[in-house]
Amino acid sequence: MNALRNNGLDGHSSGSYEPPPKRSRTATFQPCKGDHCSLSCQIADILSVIEVMKVQQATTYKSFHYLEQTKVSAEDRKALCQWGFDIMDACKLNHDVAMIAIGYFDRFLSKRGLPVVEACLDNQREFQLAFVTCLVLALKGRAGMGIEPKFVAEAMCEGMYLPEEIIALEIDILRTLGWRLNGPTASDFIKHFIELLPTGFDEEVASSLHDLACEKVKMGLLDYRLSLELPSHLALASISSLFQDINDEEQEKLGLSSWISRISCLMATSGLGAL
């Protein structure tokens, strides 16, 4: 782990993808006992989940460019996304929640032509309200928090919006997204990539790789252009960028070369350079 830190690494399925509960790598790679799956079965299961996620990210959960001919900008979006991460820090919540909210936000605004979407892109106030509402949806649906609209309006938004406005837009966003809120994220891909590390790989190093790659994803999501890349591409680019300063010999020693090659093959050609 110190070696990594010193080198700058401090389906067309009709249903919604629900990320499986976090598993320790120890549990994931335990040899077969009794009725439990064998190691090869567990790896096959991970690969199968990744394949479903790849299909869903390119179909149901895909976002498109939406900032052409609008009265809001990429810088406005970046400020809102950073505010979302700041809220997570203040509440001591995982940044994944803000990342999910950003995904909702981009997908919602990708639906150009709908009156509710055009209204949000034509007015700073409505643009901000859309992000706040997406953050509330992520807190409710993925963090399991119960949040009263009055609290959001008065505490989070300092009276800028009425509770009724938040409730109304929440319904509009849910309908626009088709109530599909459990799509795969870049951090989901990273988690599964980490599970594919060689058997016996140092747990502490694996955890560091996960956290550092997710931090790279966070920075990528602040960039409007990068945020619209497929989550798997953003995840792979984030992981690849961690090894730019590590020579091939050190990567081979750590068992990382074959791992990077394996997940690169899984993702095929991403067309996205390291962040």
In short:
The protein has 275 residues and is an all-alpha fold. The protein is built from 15 helices and no strands.
Q: What's the CATH class label of the largest domain? A: Mainly Alpha
Q: Summarize the biggest pleated sheet.
A: none
- Fraction of helical residues: 55-70%
What's the SSE pattern? HHHHHHHHHHHHHHH
Gyration radius (Cα, Å) is 20 Å
CATH architecture of the largest domain: Orthogonal Bundle
Shape category:
elongated
SSE class: mainly alpha
> What average pLDDT do the residues reach?
84
Number of domains: 2
Oligomer: single chain
Q: First CA to last CA: what distance?
A: 21 Å
| Total number of strands | 0
pLDDT below 50 for ≥5 consecutive residues: which ranges?
A: 1-36, 269-275
Percentage of β-strand residues:
under 5%
**Can you tell me the CATH topology of the largest domain?**
Cyclin A, domain 1
- The total of helices stands at 15
